[in-house]
């Protein structure tokens, strides 16, 4: 007899020097609501349900380098965010606190860095 194991992805977690600061950036960027807020852990809820985005304080956080060289702190993951308009979304991201990455590998995708240095991509279908 085989039992069905149910597994549900509830959130992606990003480490940062200050969980609340990074959560505030993504709250402004995405317009998501805070689900849980404590000094070292903040969770944002995706509208309509589904997996959220969480942030944890990591005192020894090391910013990833984009693009990374052989001895650089590597990016462990990145977020892909679909948008209607790359230019307008880019202005919004910068106003929220993002930085446009110097290196842009594709014409239809824009790479930005969040305040903790995590790369994220804005893209249009």
TrEMBL record:
<keyword id="KW-0560">Oxidoreductase</keyword>
<dbReference type="InterPro" id="IPR037523">
    <property type="entry name" value="VOC_core"/>
</dbReference>
<dbReference type="GO" id="GO:0016829">
    <property type="term" value="F:lyase activity"/>
</dbReference>
<dbReference type="InterPro" id="IPR041581">
    <property type="entry name" value="Glyoxalase_6"/>
</dbReference>
<keyword id="KW-0456">Lyase</keyword>
<protein>
    <submittedName>
        <fullName>Catechol 2,3-dioxygenase-like lactoylglutathione lyase family enzyme</fullName>
    </submittedName>
</protein>
<dbReference type="Pfam" id="PF18029">
    <property type="entry name" value="Glyoxalase_6"/>
</dbReference>
<feature type="domain" description="VOC">
    <location>
        <begin position="8"/>
        <end position="125"/>
    </location>
</feature>
<dbReference type="GO" id="GO:0051213">
    <property type="term" value="F:dioxygenase activity"/>
</dbReference>
<dbReference type="InterPro" id="IPR029068">
    <property type="entry name" value="Glyas_Bleomycin-R_OHBP_Dase"/>
</dbReference>
<keyword id="KW-0223">Dioxygenase</keyword>
